[in-house]
Amino acid sequence: MTFDTQSGDDRKNNTALYYSAALIALVLKCVLDSVFLASERLPVSFGLISSSMLAISFVAGILLARHGQISSKIVRHSSANVGKIILEGLSKIVLQLLISFLVSGILLLLFVDENSPSGVIEGTAMNFVGAIFLVMGVEIYLFIYYALHIRRNEKTKKFTKILSVGTIILYAVMALIRSSSESDNPLAGIGVFFLSIIFILTIGRTPWVALLTKKEKKRLAWLSAVGFFAFAFVGTLIAFNESEGLHYSLEFFLPASSGLVGIAMLFGAMYAARLCGPAIMSLPTASAVDRRNSEVSSLTHLNRIIAETIDFDTLIDNLTQRAMDVSRASAAWCELYSPSGERTVASMKFINKEQIEWLFNFGSFEILVRECTAPLMIESFDEHKELAPIASFPKPIARSMIIIPLYEGPTKIGALIVLQLQNFGFEIDDVNVLSSFGDNISIALRNARLIRESIKNERIQHEIQVARQIQTKLLPQKIPSVCGYDIAPFSLPANEVGGDYYDVITLQDGRVAVFMGDVSGKGVPAAFYMAKLKGVVLALAREVTGARDFLSKINSTMYGNIDRQTYITLSCVILEPNSPTISLARAGHMPFLVKQHGGVSVVTPRGLGIGLAPAKIFDANLEEFSLELSVGDSCFLFTDGLSELQNPQAQDFGYEPMLDVLRSPASHSAQSIISEVMKSADRHAQGHPQHDDMTALAFIFRGTKNILTE
Amino acid sequence: MNDLKFTIDHQSVGDVKLLKLQGYLDAHTAPHLESALGNLIQEGSHKIVVNFKELDYISSAGLGVFMVYIEDVRTTGGDIKLSEMKPKVFTVFDLLGFPMLFEIVEHDQIALAKFTA
Questions:
Q1: What are the structural domains, with CATH classification, of chain B?
Q2: Residue A544 domain-assigned?
Q3: Interface size between A and B, measured as CB pairs under 8 A
Q4: What's the pLDDT score for residue A527?
Q5: For residues B96 and B81, what is the distance between their CA atoms, to the nearest angstrom?
Q6: Is A466 within a domain?
Q7: Residues A504, A631: one domain?
Q8: Which residues of B touch A (CB under 8 A)?
């Protein structure tokens, strides 16, 4: 792997260093050569060796610098990117070659008259030309190395190694041959031929050519043609025309380097030729390929949009835009149908509501859209019997269109419509692509709906939880005991809290107030009022004188402080420790069920619900009853969630079953009354779900301290 | 909770508006009644009779709807009278003490007569 592990800054520093070193080497060489050219007294061999060393340093510096710059870019690229990168690289070196050739040409023409350097200026000019073309050679090698590397596979790796080693060997061989004989040896030619074969094999297939856009393919075609000729021409000049300034400059700069640069040019020409064929061959199908690529990327993009976008409106908007892009439509809109058949335009592009309505005013258009059950293309309005009138208008909105119906399961939930100004603006391919769009849109719509519902449900569930928590905190944790009485409560909230309330409050004078109540409504609002009520009850507990007084004061406090449509029903029983006397008052709540004098009865003192009327009317209509209990007598309070508990036949539980329990001799404790009532309620309900809170409280009089109870 | 049906039939007798309720009046359907009453009052009709003959069930939400408008209606000299309740429905109103706040009668005619008197 040739990943550069140095940091960017380090690399930049190194690159600068190498360039500087190369520049210094070049300058030194020019100076040195000038010195040797000017004076004839200095030893030639020394001059040659040191000059060559400097030349080599220069090349090495450039090589290291450029390699450093390029290696950071040698990463795995997708096939699509490979093409673009190679194309860029190729155009750079072809351009560089042309510029190098031009500059060198100018330098040679201006400063070099003969082939043997006789002056400092000539020498320096030839050095520059040599340097320029050696750099060119380095560039070509690096470009090919890079081009092979970014599409590396096992075969390429092997061949690249062989190639690199082979080139070095060949160069060494050629250098030796050059130095030993004047003419070229056929061995060199065979070596070059062998290398060429390996090179062609190394380049191998070029599948990335097919993935370029049409424009890029055209560019590659003429670039590789130009490149081939340029490399071939310059290469020939360098390698075979010994009398040519280029060849001689290179030899002057670094002996035997012309062979190396010549091979580089050869490789460059072969690479360009290798690309030219596929580039030209791919041109005829380029449009179709581009089309297909754009469809694929549209669908990929589409799927990503669907996966990432949760906001419904943005999603539909994006989808409509994409549909337009992929079918090259002039306008598009997406409409959705409600269960009742109402049509709403969810998004529109390059068309407005009035124009859409104008189209739908044509009965034929409306019918077409409404009854479309499968993707439908109207190729030409002019040739369509029913839609021709639309096309005959002076500025028609459309002359061809595609309708894609959107389905959720068996139900048609909307349609995607794309329009084109011209007749025959769409092809079958467009219908196919849009069909898959339509499928995706349907999925997106369903997802959006499910997410919306899920969020709504979550919110509802959360609210329910909050309400339940509030209610739980407001109900008494422990019932205070009252001497002579056995008290037992029961509470079973429904899933959605119903606002039931009960409490047992000790009053100032030791008496105890038992409350049973129900806030109208459900959920958090009801729980809120429960909390408010509890606060009021606790605050008033200090100063109330009796059941009626308590309820009256509660109403006075709360009337006007709660919503108009909300009210609270309350029942209140005041118990006195060791006393058989109880007082009852009822503010709109369920009646009391009382077991007394050997029988049971429904006791309903008159009273309005809390919050329905101001004190004057409320107080005037509020009764208080006083009852004298015997040992064993009991009282049962409850909310309508219990009395209205339904069985599968929609019959209410009613009061009778509860009265039965009170009547029964088995009811000897408050808890047993509760248990029996609940068992009875269970039997009644037969598993039918409970919709309201069920709350109840029972108490039994045990007798005063002096009398032993049973 | 299943959404049970609730409908309102509008009639006029002179300047009195008669609303015949049908079905179930609970938290889901109460808004329907609320907007119907609201519209009548906004139009200027303050004499309203609500007939309960075909109403099978009413919940606290339904009862609350009447409380929303009664004060406004009475300040303008009008009223909302309730008529022909089924026994079960009447019990609900009765326990709450509504007879002390609203005129609950047995037939529409009685209510209408009270308006003209």
A1: 6-116 (3.30.750.24)
A2: yes
A3: 55
A4: 86
A5: 16
A6: no
A7: yes
A8: 1, 27, 60-61, 63-65, 67-68, 71, 95-97, 100-101
Q: Do A609 and B96 touch (CB under 8 A)?
A: yes
* Largest pairwise CA distance in chain A: 149
Same domain, A263 and A352: no
A569 has a chain B CB within 8 A of its CB: yes
Q: Which of A566, A569, A621 sits opposite B64 (nearest CB)?
A: A566
Number of independent structural domains in chain A: 4
Count of other CB atoms within 10 angstroms of residue B57: 18
Rounded distance between C-alpha atoms, residue A693 and residue A639, angstroms: 8
- A613·B101 Cβ contact <8 A: yes
Contact between residue A528 and residue A558 where contact means Cβ atoms under 8 Å apart: no
> Residue type at A224?
S
Using the structure block, give the residue that is written with the tokens 């919050």.
A611
Closest Cβ–Cβ partner in B60, B100, B101 for A521 = B60
A616 touches chain B (CB under 8 A): no
Q: Which residue from A minimizes the CA distance to B71?
A: A564
Q: Do A588 and B63 touch (CB under 8 A)?
A: no
Cβ contact A526:A470 at 8 Å? no
Helices and strands (H, E) in chain A, number of each type: 21, 15
Q: Does A688 touch chain B (CB under 8 A)?
A: no
* Residue A610 located in a structural domain: yes
Q: What is the mean pLDDT of each run of 10 residues along chain A (710 residues)?
A: 56 82 88 79 73 87 84 65 85 92 87 66 84 90 81 68 76 67 62 74 75 88 93 84 75 82 87 88 86 79 75 82 88 89 89 88 86 90 83 82 88 91 87 84 80 89 85 88 94 83 93 95 85 94 94 95 92 95 96 94 96 95 96 94 91 94 88 94 90 92 68
Q: Is the same domain home to A442 and A487?
A: no
* Whether B27 and A564 lie within 8 Å, measured CB to CB: no
- The distance of Cα A49 from the centroid of its chain, to the nearest Å, equals 66
A198-237 residues touching B, CB cutoff 8 A: none
Q: Are residues A98 and A223 in the same domain?
A: yes
The answer to whether residue B1 scores a pLDDT higher than 50 is no
User: Do residue A606 and residue A623 come from a single domain?
Assistant: yes
| SS3 category, B49 | strand
A588 contacts B100? CB cut-off 8 A: no
Contacts of A624 (CB under 8 A, 6+ apart): A546, A547, A548, A583, A584, A585, A605
Quote the domain boundaries for residue A616. 475-701
Model ipTM value: 0.93
H/E stretch holding B22 = strand B16-25
Question: Which of A28, A52, A75 is a domain's end point?
Answer: A75
Residues A539 and A635 in one domain: yes
pLDDT tens readout for residues B90-107: 999 999 999 999 999 999
Q: Note whether B96 contacts A606, CB cutoff 8 Å.
A: no
* A406 shares a domain with A507: no
Residues of B in contact with A562 (CB under 8 A): none
Q: Which of A521, A522, A612 sits opposite B67 (nearest CB)?
A: A612
CB A402 within 8 A of CB A417: yes
Exposure pattern of A20-56 as b/e (b: 16+ CB <10 Å)?
A: ebbeebbebbbebbbebbeeeeeeeeebeeebbebbe
Distances (CA, A) of A268 to A8, A223, A236, A274, A277: 30, 12, 12, 10, 15
Q: Are residues A130 and A252 in the same domain?
A: yes
Query: Is A592 a member of any domain?
Result: yes
In a 13 Å sphere around the CA of A435, the CA atoms on its Cβ side amount to 11
Shortest alpha-carbon distance between residue B84 and chain A (Å): 21
Nearest CB partner across the interface for B100, out of A563, A567, A617: A617
Out of A521, A522, A588, name the one closest to residue B96 (CB). Answer: A588
Tokens 């856009």 — which residue?
Answer: A213
